[in-house]
Amino acid sequence: MKEKTGAAAAGTAGSETAAQETKTDIKSLTLEELTAEVIASGEKPFRAKQLYQWMHQKLARNYDEMTNLPKTFREKLAREYTYTSHTLVERRVSAVDGTEKYLFGLSDGNVIESVLMRYHFGNSVCISSQVGCRMGCRFCASTIGGLTRNLLPSEMLDQVYAIQRLTGERVSHLVVMGTGEPLDNYDYLLRFIRLLSDENGLHISQRNITVSTCGLVEKIRDLAQERLQITLALSLHASSQEKRKALMPVAYRYELEDVLEACRYYFEQTGRRMTFEYSLVGGVNDTSKDAEQLAKLLEGMNCHINLIPVNPIKERDYVQSEQRVITAFKNKLEKYGINVTIRREMGRDISGACGQLRKGYMEQAQ
Predict the structure, then answer these.
(1) Which one is catalytic: 126, 137, 140, 354?
(2) Selected catalytic residue, list 43, 113, 181, 277
(3) Are strands 231-235 and 209-213 parallel, antiparallel or unpaired?
């Protein structure tokens, strides 16, 4: 799998040479692809399994750590392949709940953010799938500044690997819900999921992987055909097309009913219950009427609603709904038989919401 890495992947000029730009991104290769590369280079096939384990089980930061590989082979790898290993730029730990937020530096100078959340069932990591985002959701800091580029599979993987290296704790759950629209980076997302769940790597169960989307209808239908066992979470955030347009520009491209029909299709093809994310914005989408409309909209669907008290950002005048309003909204949905939870707020004291830490860092760097 040859990919342009670093600045070349961003489509911008950079310091890499032409040779570096066309190097194979080795950490994005499957074991089968890696084996073919190793054999073609004249090495024994078993070296591929050793190399793969160093990257995806032992989480080596570079070729030098791969001590059971011949030095000449490691030198050849360094010459011919790009090796993704993120640089830690900043690490914040919440004094409230222990949530950890990370800012990682990429080889082209861009930065991305990831979050570690500790639950009773295990450690969950939220990763970014893009540098920036072009979806334009009004309440989200990730989209301010637009999209810079997609992340490579290796750049998604190494967010998980770096956190596991830094903490010494196993990651058991994964949400692709950080900066970016995952289905806007569809091919790399699929490769990432398959590498992460590969039994020769970290082997995180697909049932413990959640992918969030704002509702790219064609891609939801494509994803359904992949027959993965991941959870798909739709960022719904409104009970009508008009309100969704006010909050999410993507609604100008897709009718709400078309989005929901794609979600029904996803369930039919995979048997995986849909999750609907609903950010409660004070005075905008949190009324009793909104709750009633939402319940009717999802009537008969095998689904779960995750209510999210919106995390205010300074660039927008949206405010979080009052606690009594959040509770009343939840109770109203439950009266209609809807399975609903209120997301526990984590990491608010460390800019835990999507895009906040990265945006603050970029503002200081200017």
Answers:
(1) 354
(2) 113
(3) parallel
- 354 catalytic, yes or no? yes
Residue for token pair 């080795």:
26
- pLDDT of 256-293, one tens digit each? 999 999 999 999 999 999 999 999 999 999 999 999 99
Tell me whether residue 263 is one of the annotated catalytic residues: no
Strand, helix or coil for residue 92: strand
Residue 301 has pLDDT above 60, yes or no: yes
CA dist 89 and 254 (Å) reads: 38
Taking the C-alpha atoms of residue 248 and residue 310, their distance in angstroms, rounded to an integer, is 14
As a whole number of angstroms, the distance between CA 172 and CA 165 comes to 14
DSSP label of 185: G
**222, 244 Cβ separation under 8 angstroms:** no
pTM above 0.85, yes or no: yes
Q: Band of the pLDDT at 320, cuts 50, 70, 90?
A: confident
